[in-house]
Amino acid sequence: MAKDEFQTREFKVVGTRPLRPDGIDKVTGRARFGADMTVPGMLWGAVLRSPHAHARIKNIDTSAAEVMKGVKAVVTRADFTHQPDDPSISDILDNCMAGEKALYDGHAIAAVAATSRSIARAALDAIQVDFEVLPHVIDVDEAMKPGAPVLHKGRQQENVPEGYSENVLSRTAYGHGEPETGFKSADLVIERIFKTAATHQGYIEPHACLATMGADGQGDLWVCTQGHYMVRNTCAAILGIEAGKLRVTASEIGGGFGGKTTVFLEPTALALSRKAGRPVKMVMTRDECFRASGPTSSSSITIKIGMTKDGKMTAATGEYRYQNGAFLGMNAMLGAMTGFAPYDLEHVRTSGWEVVTNRPKAAAYRAPGAPMAAFAVESVVDELCQKLNLDPIETRLKNAAREGTRAAYGPTYPAIGLEATLKAAQNHPHWSAPLGPNQGRGVACGFWFNFGGDTCVSLMINPDGTVSLSEGNPDIGGSRASMSMMAAEELGIPLEQVRTIIADTGSLGQNDVTDGSRVTFAVGLATIKAARHAIEIMKQRAAMNWGIDPDAVEWVDGAAQPAGPNAGKFPPMSVAEIAAIASKTGGPIAGHHEVTAEGAGVSFATHMVDTEVDPETGAVKVLRYSVFQDAGKAVHPAYVEGQFQGGAVQGIGWALNEEYIYGEDGRLQNAGFLDYRIPVASDLPMIEPVILEIPNPGHPYGVRGVGETSIVPPLAAIANSVSRGAGVRLTSLPMSPPKVLAAMKAQ
Amino acid sequence: MVAVRLWGALAELADGTPEVEVDATNLRELLAQLEEKYPALRPQLARGVSVSIDGKIYNDTWATPIRPDSEVVLLNRLVGG
Q1: With bands split at pLDDT 50, 70 and 90, how would you rate the model's confidence at B7?
Q2: Residue range A187-212, pLDDT digits in tens
């Protein structure tokens, strides 16, 4: 792939705001989500889950369940006889169905398929499990101590220094320079320890699937997921079947945010179907989503930053201790890479510690690992500004990473947009708006990587000249709209003539998951290339029709035309005219493109928020919120704004209310939306999105990913706002009313 | 020869040096050379890495060219959400 794909151009379709192609279906109920598929002979699956945080499974007796009327299959780990080669897949299997030990409250122990949900649930009650309850550990700092209860033996990587608990599975370290030297030249050095609670993505649609395994060894799976190819490959590896034997179709998706980038139910549903010889449908309850899907890490972070009195950061260090639930993760590594990424630092060192605890296996959550890191780093930056009486935006501009800056995680930045977001924030009316009593204004920056990855697109020219575009990525953030728009732009035809569908795994080659802010960049790039491929074919067909050389044909405004007077005088041929004679000029016309998209670039954002703290209750109200982020090129600005707003809102929830609360027994105490409080519309002001467009040189239209960066700054921005409004610096999230009130009273 | 910068924990496994030199003209050669010259890096290479070449991050494409003066930084394999 060329490293410099971008070419300046005037857009006709890209940059407009057409109606959402999935809007009518979703508001009328016609859209089919994970739980909306039903087939004849279908059984209902249900999962028996551990009531213990940590327990050895001494025996499972399923005999009583198996003989119940209506029960068609029961599976335990013993039914998963294939051992995956890949350790990460092996962990997923262990998470989907416990082996020797239950590792957290909610860990799957057995599953049943029955003719009704009620029978399936009753059958779960009939399964007898003999547990030996073991000591458990929930907190990351406690889990790192040498005497902590150990979840796994022998899994510590070679990079962990001696003396740590075996719960510390991995350590990564980044940085350059000599921080101790840098701290000596600072006028003020602040070191703080921060704690953040685990949070859930809070997607409205629970995990759901419908699995069918035939007697011939071929299977079909309908599933709510961010990546049906990942589901296919993972399930095939777990069940020991060939990937090509399993066809996976992605349903509509009611939110994912990273939480649907792995599997939880699907291997079990397939195993039940294989055993029962009938289709099996499984739908998680909300309780199961909280207890047994993939929340994000909780964290304990130590940040130390030195600054001169005129605002120059002289050195910084960070220790990022994240628990990833019961299995190895990489959120601490990502925190260690991203926390100081917005700044130009001569001396910076960070370490990330990946720790296991008796909690569900962490999954990705929008920019995994980065929001907590930004919370800690940006809080210290803000405190330095307060103590040195410095302007928080000017100070960030003074220290901002720019082209040529060596990033805290290693590489030298190419052209980046952080400075532009800071200047946009500085010049926005929000920055100079007056504040009232008990109100504060906070600012924070955030960084995230963008990704590319395996991508296949097929673009069919139909006989009537309309276009059918197939992509292999579930549409979470508007990809059907943006792909249709890019195809229409490139072909030069009206948007209404393009329909994009999400193809199943049997229809296109491998596609990576809809994650990493990759889809508009990578699938968009492939869509544009597929359209160009189709155009080349259509030019050949027109040339054949006219009896001239294909090189003498050009594509202008959605039609083939002779490239000049010497090529001949023929009226332009539209897509419809070329399609109408396709059978006579060589057959059906289709463009396609397959690519491993690389070099996606990085992304920065600056957020600004006003809050008001009630001095009597400690309740924090968000009054005004502005997001400044670079989109490269906003293909459909309304969707881009939605991404900016959604990330900010999720960050507001993370900052103020959301947390996994565990009891002394290691069991989750708030596994439902009543007690796990996500923001609702009435909690929020209008989130004002400000889209910056600094073209990404690696994409033909300059597109950058925008899906994740917007959740990185909010935690810090709100903490900084509360600090300035209430006069107290909170270092622990969430900043719930009791915490804020206690901090205010302690002053 | 290409200079490859290693992150801290990897440097400790590569004779304690944060920068190593290998003879490579593309990503595949780079990874193969690292594995051959520094066997202690094999577990991490097997787990997966990303490579920043002149400020852009690459994950997979073996044929990605690397010039002798390219800035090459080895990174942990990155994931998104």
Answers
A1: confident
A2: 999 999 999 999 999 999 999 999 99
Phi and psi at residue A90, in whole multiples of 5°? Answer: -60, -40
Q: Is pLDDT at A258 greater than 60 in this prediction?
A: yes
| Helix (H/G/I), strand (E/B), else coil: A50 | coil
- B79 contacts in A (CB within 8 Å)? 330, 334, 364, 368, 515-516
pLDDT at B79: 83
d(CA A376, CA A316): 12
pLDDT digits (tens, 9 = 90+) for B29-72: 999 999 999 999 998 898 889 999 998 889 888 999 999 999 99
Asked whether A167 and A150 are in contact (CB, 8 A), the reply is: yes
Average pLDDT, chain A: 97
Query: DSSP labels for A653-678?
Result: HHHHT----B-TTS-BS--STTTS--
Alpha-carbon distance of A476 to B80, in angstroms, equals: 14
Best residue in A157, A170, A172 for a mutation probing chain B (most B CBs within 10 Å): A172
Nearest 5°: phi and psi at A347?
-130, 110
Residue A246: pLDDT above 60? yes
For residue A583, the one-letter residue type is S
- Helix or strand (DSSP H, E) at A121: helix A117-126
What CA–CA distance (Å, rounded) separates A533 from A458? 10
- Contacts B60 to A, Cβ<8 Å: 453-454, 596, 598
Q: Which residue has the tokens 């599975």?
A: A169
A 429-458 near B (Cβ less than 8 A): 448-454
3-state secondary structure of A687: strand
Q: Is B40 an 8 Å CB contact of chain A?
A: yes
